[in-house]
Specification:
The protein is an alpha/beta fold. The chain is built from twelve helices and 20 strands. The protein folds into two domains: 2-38 and 200-265 and 368-411, FAD/NAD(P)-binding domain, CATH 3.50.50; 71-196 and 267-363, Polyamine Oxidase, Chain A, domain 2. Bound molecules: flavin-adenine dinucleotide.
């Protein structure tokens, strides 16, 4: 019997592969829903995603395991609105390399200087010539901030910090430049989407392929029993014990540390403050990047521009990402003020509807600290899986689930 702890993306893909091979397994999930850090809350006609996250359609694992059409994808326009001290600049990535209009618009937009555009173009050209997944094997020695030395402060503050600070949940850009290059290449070549009815549709689609009885919700694993250096059973919060031959820990790093002892890296927190507006605050299907190291709102999106179904008819839902573990009412008020200022809104235009706090969002992935599959087998029959041994992304988590299942099947 193989016991998988955690029905996030990694545990679900591991389970799918084991099911395909006909291996006996059970998937234990402490929550009442699957998806882990990826999911949505549905309330009063709103869809509140658990953190602003986007699916890139060019991740190999996404292509292998998800039916994107069945998610009713709603696409972002490639690019961003960059706001800096009262001025808005539009950066549009050409949809195709023959999309000369967008390319020209971006070329003449004064948001980023000619020198910065040239530097950016050279990085992009270098990345386009490389194999995507091969980028991850390159030396992991410098931070994104160091890698971007040479760009002007304006480019750093208007684009890189709010965009990649928001993607990596790292305002200081201390994340490994290898990951920056990988995600940048993915954003350059892929399409960014959310499912029409929210992120929860992604794990829900995966779980739909599992055999009945394979998943046990509301089943928290609280301890692992060992004998002769091997795991023999897990104990649940209910007191039940399940005997096992192999154990897959597809839970976040701190949970693995509690269950079997492991190093825990620092983590980046995030939160989303959701506001409602009666009138649209901007029309484009673009992410809005706010310049300024010390700004509270790192980036924001009127998510109903992408999928109107995220709010009841006539309402607009704005999702503002802040890089904080906890959001007191004073931060909600400060975020509202910042958004009012960006769009010159009258006070009272926005009303706060919900805040989602994610104290453990992603592990800090500084150079040399991006864990890899080599950390994945701490005991002869125990595997660690998910973004605790891969890069923190849908791709990293799903691929890790597939690799873990493959290794167990190979070893068995
Ligand atoms: C705010 C935010 C923004 C992000 N943005 C993006 C993005 O835009 N694009 C992208 O590709 N990635 C993004 N990510 C990263 C991505 O969501 C994660 O890397 C990925 O979902 C991790 O999946 P996982 O399976 O490794 O872990 P998890 O999703 O954490 O799954 C672990 C599961 O284990 C369960 N569990 C925990 N303890 C126990 C226990 N004791 N017993 C049983 N079950 C247990 C949990 O409930 C959970 O379901 C973002 C993450 C966050 C939080």
């Amino acid at each position: 019997m193989i016991v998988i702890v955690g029905a996030g993306l990694s545990g679900l893909v591991c389970a799918l592969e084991l099911a395909r091979a006909g291996a006996p397994f059970v998937l234990m999930e402490k929550n009442a829903r699957v998806g882990g850090r990826l999911g949505s809350i549905y309330e009063d006609g709103y869809t509140f995603d658990l953190g602003f996250q986007v699916l890139l359609d060019n991740y190999p694992a996404v292509r292998a395991y998800l039916d994107i059409d069945a998610l009713s994808p709603r696409y972002f326009e490639p690019g961003a609105l960059m706001w800096d001290a009262g001025r808005t600049f539009t950066f549009r990535r050409p949809k195709m390399w023959t999309d000369f209009r967008s390319a020209l618009q971006t070329a003449v937009d004064p948001g980023v200087s000619w020198g910065d555009k040239l530097r950016l173009g050279m990085i992009a050209a270098g990345l386009l010539a490389r194999n995507d997944e091969g980028i991850l094997d390159e030396a992991d020695a410098v931070s994104t901030k160091t890698y971007l030395e040479g760009f002007s402060d304006a480019a750093l503050e208007r684009f890189f910090r709010p965009f990649f600070g928001g993607v990596l949940l790292d305002n200081e850009l201390e994340t490994s430049a290898t990951l920056f290059r990988y995600y940048f290449k993915k954003f350059l070549t892929g399409r960014t989407l959310v499912p029409r009815f929210g992120l929860q549709a992604i794990p829900d689609q995966l779980v739909g392929h599992l055999p009945g009885g394979a998943l046990r919700l509301e089943s928290e694993v609280t301890a692992v029993a060992f004998e002769g250096g091997k795991a023999t059973a897990v104990r649940l919060a209910s007191g039940e014990e399940i005997k096992l031959d192999h154990l897959v820990l597809a839970c976040p790093e701190p949970v693995t540390a509690k269950l079997i002892g492991a190093r825990v890296r620092e983590a980046h927190p995030a939160a989303v403050i959701y506001f409602r507006a009666e009138q649209s605050i901007y029309p484009e299907k673009l992410l809005v990047l706010q310049a300024g190291h010390r700004k509270l709102v790192r980036n924001l999106v009127q998510i109903t521009n992408i999928s109107p179904d995220y709010a009841p008819p006539g309402a607009h839902l704005i999702s503002a990402t802040v890089l904080r573990a906890r959001v007191p009412p004073s931060d909600v008020a400060a975020a509202e003020q910042e958004i009012n200022h960006i769009f010159k809104l009258k006070p009272g235009t926005l009303s706060h509807v919900r805040t989602v706090e994610i104290p453990y969002a992603v592990p800090a992935q500084a150079p040399g600290n991006v864990f890899t599959q080599k950390f994945a087998k701490p005991f002869p029959n125990v595997w660690r899986c998910g973004d605790q041994v891969s890069h923190a992304s849908f791709q990293g988590a799903m691929e890790s689930g597939a690799v873990t299942a493959g290794t167990i099947l190979h070893d068995a």
